[in-house]
Design goal:
The structure holds 2 protein chains of 2 kinds. By secondary structure, chain A is an alpha+beta fold. Helices cover 46% and strands 21% of the residues of chain A. The relative contact order of chain A is 0.16. Classes of the chains: A alpha+beta, B alpha/beta.
Chain lengths: 165, 196
């Protein structure tokens, strides 16, 4: 499992595996939008009708939401609340935690139901958890082997200055 | 902690603005938001009370450009400064890459600055961070007001480690971008060392 202090690294191969799983979940759960967010609020992947959605803000607020409910959980002696559900007039949001660090968000309307979403999310969560396990192992291996030096080792002060010009 | 995405070639970093109530954290973000080109910024979110005091956090996503083929994105957050929102402040420090401490230069806020800095140290420790090691800069804000402590006095008390310190006036924007640049530099240098 990813520790809270470890930096999250995403590689192409795992990203494609994640995207495939999310697309399948989108179809099987009849939902509108699905996205994955790191607990720190970084968007990892999104699929579905994302064109008119501010996914960056959604990611940050979802993480804030999970953090706040996590705080509430601790106050009453729970480890965390692993599922949150928000019901709206048209759209609903189902939020769940995968592998302790990643947040899965499913937005759906009347074409689906809470029961169906919960069922499909449960199955997809197990598969996504495996991908993230693999990702952690790969990150650890890559950091040990010096064959793939960090692309940031070469950053110069000029590079950084240029960002602000 | 930073999120490095090789698939989309992006680096995402999280910077938190900390400081006592009404010191100007939100004003810093608002100035950055107003002065940044449309294509480089996302929506600014403020979770505030009806009296415009920060309740949970402000959030501003910024895209700064590319470094070595990687798009660099900074997510700027503020914490609620009021003492009784401590539980929320702790949550926002999760996964932080760099901290800006906004000090209120007014003489009557001297103690509030010290209290807030101590609070920052404690809350960072709870999240497993060490203020001595994390990228950290201090902004002495409100330098335009008449009743301010001298920078030396503030520096001696708040900045024994002599991290980068800047004078600012967030309402006019003086020092705001310099502060952001200064902390961004430290964060990216940390990344370079593989420290995150």
């Amino acid at each position: 499992m990813l520790g809270p202090q470890s930096s999250l690294v995403m590689y192409d191969e795992e990203y494609q595996r994640i995207l495939l799983l999310l697309e399948r979940l989108l179809r099987e759960s009849n939902s509108k939008v699905i996205f994955l967010v790191d607990k720190n609020g970084q968007l990892i992947a999104a699929t579905g009708e994302t064109a008119n959605l501010d996914t960056t803000s959604l990611a940050s607020l979802t993480a804030g939401n999970i953090a706040a409910t996590g705080g509430l959980a601790k106050l009453i002696g729970e480890k965390e609340f692993s599922i949150l559900f928000h019901e709206g007039e048209k759209d609903n949001i189902h939020i769940s935690i995968i592998g302790g660090r990643v947040i899965l968000v499913v937005i759906f309307d009347h074409r689906s139901s809470l029961g169906l979403v919960r069922l499909r999310v449960k199955k997809a969560s197990n598969e996504l958890a495996i991908v993230f396990e693999d990702l952690v192992n790969r990150t650890e291996q890559e950091s040990i082997s010096s064959s793939a030096p960090s692309p940031f080792a070469e950053i110069t002060d000029d590079d950084i200055d240029n960002l602000f010009n | 902690m930073s999120f490095i995405n090789y698939a989309s070639r992006e680096i995402n970093c999280k910077i938190v603005y900390y400081g006592p109530g009404l010191c100007g954290k939100t004003t810093n973000l608002q100035f950055i938001y107003n002065k940044t080109a449309e294509e480089s910024k996302g929506k600014m979110i403020s979770l505030a009370t009806e009296t415009e005091r920060t309740l949970f956090f402000d959030f501003l996503p910024l895209a700064l450009g590319e470094i070595r083929g990687f798009k660099t994105r900074f997510h700027l957050y503020t914490v609620p400064g009021q003492v009784f929102y401590d539980a929320s402040r702790k949550l926002i420090l999760k996964g932080v890459d760099g901290v800006v401490f906004v000090a209120d230069s007014q003489v009557e806020r001297f103690d509030a600055n010290i209290e807030s800095l101590e609070n920052l140290k404690d809350n960072l420790e709870e999240q497993g961070f060490d203020l001595e090691k994390i990228p950290f800069v201090i902004q002495y804000n409100k330098r335009d007001l008449p009743n301010v402590s001298s920078v030396e006095e503030l520096s001696n008390l708040l900045n024994p480690r002599k991290v980068p310190e800047l004078e600012g006036c967030a309402t006019t924007g003086e020092g705001v971008f310099e502060t952001l640049k200064s902390v961004a530099k430290l964060v990216l240098n940390d990344l370079k060392k593989g420290g995150t």
